[in-house]
Amino acid sequence: MNRLRGKVAIVTGGATGIGEAIVKKFAKEGAKVVVNGFPEDPVMDVVNEITSGGYDAIGFMGDVSEEGNAMACVQFAVETYGKLDILINNAGVFPVMEMIENYPTKAFEYMMKNNVRTAFLMTKYAIPELQKTKGCIISAGSEAGKIGLGENAVYGGTKGFIHSFTRGIAVEQAKYGIRANCVCPGAIDTAWTHKETGPMKKKHETMIVEGTPLGRRGTPEEIANAYLFLASDEASYITGTLMMVDGGITIGKGAIGKEAEKDTKREPSGELLLRHKKEGATDMLRGEDGNV
Ligand SMILES: NC(=O)c1ccc[n+]([C@@H]2O[C@H](COP(=O)([O-])OP(=O)(O)OC[C@H]3O[C@@H](n4cnc5c(N)ncnc54)[C@H](O)[C@@H]3O)[C@@H](O)[C@H]2O)c1
């Protein structure tokens, strides 16, 4: 408890999946949290759950790949809470699994907009405020940005951008006391990795689970725990790191997850109630009307 007491955080894409776990974890740890999402995301449901539990959060609905919305989101945090200590670039989309020769150009552009442009704009407008607080930025990387993801080379490419962008920011902003890091999840139990709720087919689900030495998906809360550590003062000497939180999938070879024992394959229950973890952005309809 209270590892983020007095800190003000913005979490983009904070109403579903991993983002929902981050905002709930951060609020429990004493942060004041600005929950951002598209207007059609369950932003206010999440905010209301947090505030009814006696914690502090406020919603900012808007597509932060739009320059005006990114600027307004940072202003809103500062006007509401007086400062900004932590920016979490978590927003992202995962609409298609397809070989490159058939990959829709529209999906490429949709991912550049929501996975890359969001992080660039939010970082650009948050930096002046983070310089005042010696704050930090943590962005959503991915094992797919390290090793490549077949049938979604484009998604992996957007995460490769996030990795090196983060490292560039870490180097140039270190003199102001700003830290910048990535959390790089493996396959996480959100809408994206289930055939019923996302673009993965059965064969992809089998591949990601069997390819993970721990033999299962990670939970959104397991990822939020890594964000919490990197956002906390315990990580005060860590900058420019790509923290793999991937059950070993990046280092595993072959179907090694099949060997995991039954108990190992069981997801930990965690402490958070996550109502919206399967309502993520897995088609290209989300954010069509993205203004505040
Ligand atoms: N789920 C996984 O297996 C996995 C693995 C590695 C990395 N990640 C990364 O973690 C992050 C969260 O993924 P998730 O699985 O929780 O997915 P998710 O779809 O549940 O969460 C992403 C959220 O971002 C929002 N969003 C997207 N673009 C936005 C924009 N322009 N403005 C405002 N909100 C926007 C979406 O509406 C959605 O609520 C992503 O960046 C993803 O790349 C996920």
TrEMBL record:
Record region (Disordered): 259-292
Which UniProt keyword terms apply here? Oxidoreductase
Q: Which domain of life is it from?
A: Bacteria
Q: Spell out the Basic and acidic residues composition-biased ranges.
A: 259-269, 279-292
Q: Which InterPro entries match?
A: NAD(P)-bd_dom_sf (IPR036291), Sc_DH/Rdtase_CS (IPR020904), SDR_fam (IPR002347)
Enumerate the PROSITE patterns for this protein: ADH_SHORT
One Pfam family hit: adh_short_C2
Q: Which CDD domains does the record cross-reference, listed alphabetically? A: SDR_c
What GO molecular function annotations does the UniProt record carry, in alphabetical order?
oxidoreductase activity
* Family classification: Belongs to the short-chain dehydrogenases/reductases (SDR) family.
Supply the NCBIfam families for this chain.
PRK07231.1
Q: What is this protein called?
A: NAD(P)-dependent dehydrogenase, short-chain alcohol dehydrogenase family
